[in-house]
């Protein structure tokens, strides 16, 4: 199996991604690291532990704690995910484990198996940027970063042109985009093509399974908040697509592009910018997915959740 670290800010779609990855025999999730984003750093940390405890996967990953952001976050997404990030279920952890800071755990796990560990970035890029600045040699040792975020079409989901994960910490996103790590970007252009209607609820794992119990409480909340906040009858499961990309990269045709992040624009902070000029002579050092095989990706998510329910 491929070794991965999942860096996330749970978040309902983060929880879905964890349920998929933790039971997938093709992946070995060596660590799950929390980052502030959808919710605060404290909440993200306890949510990661609560989800992993509820799912109780066959192989327990190490857990990393989110440190507070350097700059107070300007945004969260509690209107979509619930005040606690997880559908207001009030999930408690048995006892908050003593954990390493996420950025340290990232450094340790990557150094323990140089070149073999990829990182699925499902939240703001704060932890990855910190890990790279703490240990610059790390960039050569990370297998691949699969970054869920940004928007090539430049239509955002939190401001007119910025996507949430990038907008929440643009300085870190810029540092990561500019680092020499091998990167794949899964932007909104892909994730908003894969939509789920209410019949997803019937395809979830059964109530008696651990994954079923959790997902059957989380997902109805997402349908309600998407309807309330955006007037939509279907939902996106953005972060789940990053897990699909890790297992089935062939479902995401990519283009090599040079990408950067606007950090200070009055209207454009957090926007991802790609140089697509015909006379551009630089190097396109980021694989950017502009399309996704919608049917196959949908099927992959549903099957993967069903598999989580069989364990
Ligand atoms: C991203 O924003 C968050 O709310 C989701 O968890 C996802 O990671 C999509 O823009
Ligand atoms: Ca997320």
UniProtKB/TrEMBL annotation:
Pfam families: IU_nuc_hydro. It comes from the Bacteria. GO terms for cellular component: cytosol. GO terms for molecular function: purine nucleosidase activity; uridine nucleosidase activity. GO terms for biological process: purine nucleoside catabolic process. SUPFAM superfamilies: Nucleoside hydrolase. Residues 4-296 form the Inosine/uridine-preferring nucleoside hydrolase domain. Keywords: Glycosidase, Hydrolase. InterPro entries: I/U_nuclsd_hydro_CS (IPR015910), Inosine/uridine_hydrolase_dom (IPR001910), IUNH (IPR023186), Ribo_hydro-like (IPR036452). The keyword Hydrolase applies. This is Inosine/uridine-preferring nucleoside hydrolase. It comes from Pirellula staleyi (strain ATCC 27377 / DSM 6068 / ICPB 4128) (Pirella staleyi). The lineage of its organism: Bacteria, Pseudomonadati, Planctomycetota, Planctomycetia, Pirellulales.
């Amino acid at each position: 199996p491929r070794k991965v670290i999942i860096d996330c800010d749970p978040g309902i779609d983060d929880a879905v991604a964890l349920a998929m990855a933790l039971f997938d025999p093709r992946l070995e999730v060596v660590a799950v690291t929390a980052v502030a984003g959808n919710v605060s750093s404290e909440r993200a940390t306890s949510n990661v532990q609560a989800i992993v405890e509820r799912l109780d996967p066959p192989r327990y990953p190490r857990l990393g704690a989110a440190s507070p952001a350097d700059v107070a976050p300007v945004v969260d997404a509690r209107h979509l995910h619930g005040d606690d990030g997880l559908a207001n279920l009030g999930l408690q952890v048995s006892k908050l484990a003593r954990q390493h800071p996420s950025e340290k755990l990232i450094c340790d796990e990557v150094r323990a198996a140089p070149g073999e560990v990829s990182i699925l970035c499902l939240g703001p890029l704060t932890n990855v940027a910190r890990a790279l600045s703490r240990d610059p040699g790390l960039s050569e040792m990370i297998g691949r970063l699969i970054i869920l975020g940004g928007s090539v079409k430049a239509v955002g989901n939190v401001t007119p042109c910025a996507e949430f994960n990038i907008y929440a910490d643009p300085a870190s996103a810029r540092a990561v985009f500019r680092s020499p790590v091998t990167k794949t970007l899964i932007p909104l252009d892909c994730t908003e093509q894969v939509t789920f209607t209410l019949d997803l609820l019937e395809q979830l794992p059964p109530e008696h399974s651990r994954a079923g119990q959790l997902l059957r409480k989380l997902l109805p909340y997402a349908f309600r908040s998407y309807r309330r906040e955006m007037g939509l009858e279907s939902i996106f499961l953005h972060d789940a697509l990053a897990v699909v990309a890790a297992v089935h990269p062939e479902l995401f045709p990519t283009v090599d592009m040079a990408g950067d992040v606007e950090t200070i624009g009055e209207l454009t902070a957090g926007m991802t910018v790609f140089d697509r000029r015909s006379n551009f002579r630089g190097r396109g050092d980021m694989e950017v997915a502009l399309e996704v095989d919608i049917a196959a990706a949908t099927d992959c998510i549903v099957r993967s959740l069903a598999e989580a329910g069989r364990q």
